[in-house]
Sequence to fold (224 residues):
Amino acid sequence: MRSTHGAASCAVLACLLLAGCSPTALGGSVVSGTRSPAAGSSGAAASGSTTGSDIAVGAGPRKRYMVQQQPASGSCHYRYEHGEPLEDPKCTPGAISPAVTQSNVASTICRKGGYTSGIRPSTSVTGKEKELNAASYGYTGRMGDAEYDHLISLQLGGDPNDYRNLWVEPADPGHRSGAGVNNKKDPVETKLHTAVCKGTVTLAAAQKAIVTDWTTALSVLHLA
Fold:
């Protein structure tokens, strides 16, 4: 038995030093690095894995949030569908919170008394991020008319402060300058939230629909 164990140990050592075997080849694990913003700037907000629906998973709620780096200036571009502004999926693909799952919606996003106020980053953080993200998207309009928006809203389990889930959303076409934030995406989020809490649609379906195209999310899920 000793000679067999010794031979195995030598084989492992030889594999590591001579053949260049990786830890995973020997049943170990590899710690992945953090992901950088989509446009290539370094120092990502959160490493995040992905779910079965390919939506990134962010860091989730924190007691203290830090200002997150944003994609490079001018690297993100708005799209327009049905006259409404949509995010650049390369810069803002969305990210969900690991704290919200289908099994716990009753105690998180659907609980009485609200959920989002306790996890929302302070304006001292989001204000700085909004300015940086406006540069990412080349937004030059009135900042007071644009919303620093969670693509997947907090009430749908979106990550609170992952750069992949936040973008400067311009005002709707025809919006009166100086009238403040008022867009058609917010009512869509509310209807999706109601449907999830009633069990009409799953959390994952609502998240995927709004990431794909918020202007068609309700019709795709037969909620229009």
